[in-house]
Amino acid sequence: ESIVQSTRALAIAAACITVFMVGYYGTAGVISIIALVLNLLVIVACLNLFGATLTLSGIGGIILTIGMAVDGNVLIYERIREEIEAGRSLRDALRHGFHSVFIVILDSHLTVLLAAFVLLQFGSGSVQGFALTMAFGLIANLFTNLTVTYALCLKWFEWTGKLGVGRLRILHHANLDFIGLRNFSFSISAVLGVAAILYLVFRGGPEMA
Prior knowledge:
This protein has helices at residues 2-49, 56-85, 90-122, 126-160, 182-202. The chain is globular, with a radius of gyration of 20 Å. It starts with a helix and ends in a 7-residue tail after the last helix. It is mainly alpha-helical.
């Protein structure tokens, strides 16, 4: 019953993401959904290749990687919009948009991938199932976000001479000083990190299966 409910949640999440991406980014959103489907196929193929079973926790890992895949596409498309507003041609905007977010996407995915490897090493049972599908999904994300999406966008532009990136702008020119809040964010992260370490020390370290 839990697996059925989780599968239903995955389907609902995928439907909501499809509606949002297509409605907000137009043709580019359609391309991102195609890349997302390929992403899921890569995850299933990897599970089959390594003889792993898709578990309830594994479905959770897939949902997480879907969210990160969409996040990467949003970063790319918003950057393309900014390049177009700056006066670049659509071809140059595509090239600069993907190039400028490459490091951001790579950094975020490698960071979470490192956490997945830690869970695989020290976790057990459902934790390992979650970490395994998450690791496969993150690697697939890097391929689809940075390679497949760009190739499809460029090919569509070459075929049609245009590429719709949507006209809706919910938070256009939002004026929030993220950099100015960095010291506050660093402080909170440091406090939570030290608290976690002290907790592990006082309880005698992590439980080993």
